[in-house]
Here is the input.
Amino acid sequence: MEPDELHEAWRPTPDPSRRVRVWAGIEQGLDARRARAWWPRPVVYGLVGVAATLALILVWGRDRPWQSIDTAHSEQVAQLDDGSTITVARASRVERCAAPGQCFAVARGAADFRVTAQRAPFRVRAAEVEVRVVGTRFRVARGDDDVVAVAVAEGRVEISRGGVVVRTLGAGESWHSAAVAPPAAEPSVAQVDAVDAGVAVATRDAEVPEPGGARVPDAGATGRVREAAVAEGLSADALWSRAVEAKLQDDLELEELSYRQLVRRFPRDARAGRASFELARLAMDVQKSPVDAVRWLQAALARGPEASYAEDAWARLARAADATGQLQVCREARSTYLSRYPRGVHAGLVREACPD
Amino acid sequence: MPLTPSVEQLVAAARSGDREAQRALYERTVGWVERLSFRLMRSRAEAEDVMQESYLQAFLSLAQLREASRFEGWLRSVVVGTAHKRSRRIRLWGRGLREGLELEHLESKDASPEVRAELSRVLTAIGSLPGELRIPYVLRYVEGMTVPEIAASIDWSQRTVKRRIQAATERLEKRGVRHGAR
Here is the structure.
């Protein structure tokens, strides 16, 4: 069939009521918009201005949190908003530092920290040492020679130097920086992967867990395995090209294998996030495995929170988590999506996910 | 306003919210907008939604149309953009992912039985394509749009449009559907 023939023959069945129905819907939409816009703009702008002024007054009038505490002959106790307390010893100085969650630096002397359980990490820095903790009681002391000592009274803490986790301490244990050789020169990224009973567990970024990894065929099972073996030697560029090509050819198995290898072998590649997202898409749409999809989506968003796929990823995460009954994950994804993309293409459907 | 106002006059009046002018623009264009929507979407309900959303968006953003005489071309871009957006949303939420077209709503009653049979075969094949391949293919080979026009309407690069049309063509050829270029 030639294009012109198709153009002529492919027409919707005539239905006069359809055009009336569609026009009624358009009018309804136009009326709704007009009803929302009846307030004159100067009035709206005036109200917005008043609200902004009030907000500024509230923000500036509020007590500003302290930025540093210096003590001389006696200790000082600081109470934080979250219920945690810091007891700054005599002749010491503790400063706030810029980092996500609560962050303090022991610039001089020592301080005792009693940290309530909280979601964001609580960090204490002293020289090149950082102590990260979720819910515990411990002391950090910094000597004049920058030797740092950490003693834990309750719970557990994780100690890192130069970004590398060097030790995890439990209750009753202590550590000091002079006892440990400086970290290797390679700047490795350490990240908190899981928090269990107040313990921050750190893993290095080199090994990437594969959600649903068991789905890759066993060696020798199919001809595709040979493809996988060959792909082991491919560069990230070649794997990416192969995945895209496989997608266009509807070769879903090769597409999945290529993305998996890219993520596993090149976790720091700029395309690893997109590859994780594509694996999530395959898990949802093809393999019908929302459990794997949730894991891949979380990996994709961790790699590229501002990436171009983030909008779709948050929406998919809400849906996949809803399907698996992970209501907390679903609600967080829904909330994140709606706050970031209130007019997003998926906003209407995301609102329907995991109803409260 | 004259008895048969020009498109420019109607657009000018519609910009100020004149409902009669908006209705007149709708009446003038609904024929091809309806066809285009049905060709781009897989079901009657989706096509009607695209028609409604497209007109609503067009009337609410008429201020963005610089030359009133280009209203129809601009409206076509709005329809294509809306269809693409909706297709993406449908795909994301898994509805109609592997479904074919609703043929009973698409076949022309005027066509001969042979043409209807052939049309049914071709449309079944086209309906099996995912939206990201089906939409550029239909725009190119059924609507006769150029690659730059398609790229501008969907907000893709021309290279992406070409690759997806090529991929769609190859898939259709595997199912025995061949097309000459328009």
